[in-house]
Each structure stands twice: as C-alpha cells, then as structure tokens.
Design goal:
CATH superfamily: 5'-nuclease
Shape: globular
Strand content: 5-15%
Number of domains: 1
CATH topology: Rossmann fold
Number of helices: 7
Number of strands: 4
Distance between the termini: 23 Å
Helix content: 55-70%
Low-confidence stretches: none
Strand order of the largest sheet: 3-2-1-4
CATH architecture: 3-Layer(aba) Sandwich
Mean pLDDT: 90
Largest sheet: 4 strands, parallel
Length: about 140
C-alpha cells in the first residue's frame, strides 16, 4: 500500500473552494490518487492542528469540526503523533534556518518524512522542495 503524507496546504485547498489551488487539489484526488488505490493518507498531529486552525479562521468552526470528524472516521487516514525527540529535532531545524519561511509545523513534517519515507506527499507550496524532498503529487 502506498503512503502519501498530506500537508495542511493541500488539505485546506481541497476543502476551501476559494483557495487558488482548490480545483488542482480536487483534480489530483480524482485523477492521480484514485488510480493509486489502495492508499494510506498520513497526517501528523501538527498538520491536523494547523488544518483545524485555518479552516476555523477562513471558513467556520462548524466546518473545522465537520472536516475533523470526517478525517478521523475515514479509515484511509493514518494519524501519526510526533515524539518529544521529533519535536526537539524540528525545533533545532526551525532555529537553524532563519533565512527560510518554514513554519514550525513544516519542520515537524520534514522530520516525520525524513524518518518514515512515505512514497509521496501532497502540498500546494514548495517548502518540501526546499527541504530536498521531491515526491509531490501536485507536480511542484
């Protein structure tokens, strides 16, 4: 089974119809992802936290609750929880690269991807490319 790490940027674009990547995110799921079944979507606790925050901010609390419940109920989603060691490594990366605009969550994602080697990832920004990871199904 293929594992796809899913970034907040992709999940938000998929759910928020005003996001500039909304149509592209929907198309990737309908075209590329469906052809790759069976598939496991990997989401970390930090991605989930960030997603709930942006959905509540740009859509509504009700929308955040709806999306969160759907993700937890969908067996294709595998929630991963970062360890204190992961947290410390992410914090070190966040501090070391002050010239980058990576969020702390981006740094936690990098640590998880580096240590767990998913087959692909989905994101609508190029932060992971800056980390040297080039498996984005969005084609960036």
């Amino acid at each position: 089974m293929k594992r796809v790490f899913v970034d907040t940027s992709f999940l938000f674009a998929y759910h928020y119809d005003k996001d500039p990547y909304h149509v592209a995110a929907r198309n990737v799921v309908n075209e590329k992802v469906k052809a790759m079944q069976p598939l496991q979507w990997v989401v970390t606790d930090y991605i989930f936290d960030e997603l709930m925050t942006v959905i509540q901010k740009f859509m509504s609390k009700e929308s955040a609750l709806e999306v969160g419940k759907r993700l937890f109920q969908d067996r294709a989603f595998d929630f991963k929880y970062l360890t204190s060691k992961d947290f410390e490594e992410a914090w070190a990366i966040f501090q070391r690269y002050q010239d980058k605009q990576w969020s702390f969550t981006d740094c936690t994602s990098y640590v998880w991807i580096r240590d767990n080697q998913p087959d692909y990832y989905l994101a609508t920004d190029d932060d992971f490319n800056q980390f040297g990871i080039s498996l984005n199904l969005m084609g960036f």
